[in-house]
């Protein structure tokens, strides 16, 4: 069992694959899956992307630094929406960020984050790393280390780490366990190199699972064999 986890979610969990905006069925499912983990007694931190709103990489007509900042603001929007959805269902939640001082957002202070967890809050880290040129994968790795997480769970639409795209190659092999070095050597695009570097430096395991498989998140938190686990060397 993991007592403290950081869950990395894509913006698509808010709307469904290939869609934009917010879909209530998807939001209800998201809240249910997170609530199960909270009820189990695990401290939950969350980093969520903004692909359901816009992606910085799509804004090619403006400088990359500005496009990334727009994307970072998108994660703040999703963080606030997730806070509202969780609280509506009785789950306490706080959004923390270094890039926004809106009334419902609090700054990131390590001591305060521990107090939030002790009080039973889900902590949503919004605004990426607070700097452009970094992905939300890197933000997830950074926040996981900062909060002292036991594991980083990357909740995707694929049930683990494969040696090739399972949607294109029916013979693709799924790894149940793999080391950071093996994943890097094989060029597996699980997370970007900055995220791998942070997780490797601090010996933080990564579990990759299909978030849309009902109950998968709770199974991962329980330490059950689900998805793929990437282990420090």
SSE layout:
Layout: E1 4-9, H1 24-40, E2 43-48, H2 64-88, E3 93-96, E4 105-106, H3 110-118, E5 122-125, H4 136-147, E6 151-156, E7 161-162, E8 174-175, E9 177-179, H5 180-185, H6 193-201, E10 206-210, H7 216-222, E11 228-231
Parallel strand pairs: 1-2, 1-6, 2-5, 3-4, 3-5, 6-10, 9-11
Antiparallel strand pairs: 7-8, 10-11
Helix pairs in contact: 1-7, 4-6
Question: If you had to describe this structure to a student in words, what would you say it looks like?
Answer:
This protein is of the alpha/beta class. It is about 35% helix and about 20% strand. It is built from seven helices and eleven strands. The chain has helices at about 25-40, 65-90, 110-120, 135-145, 180-185, 195-200, 215-220, and strands spanning about 5-10, 45-50, 95, 105, 120-125, 150-155, 160, 175, 175-180, 205-210, 230. The protein has a nine-stranded mixed sheet with strand order 4-3-5-2-1-6-10-11-9, with helices on both faces. The chain has a two-stranded antiparallel ribbon with strand order 7-8. β1 (about 5-10), α1 (about 25-40) and β2 (about 45-50) form a beta-alpha-beta unit. α4 runs parallel beside α6. The longest helix is centred in the N-terminal third of the chain and has 25 residues, at about 65-90.
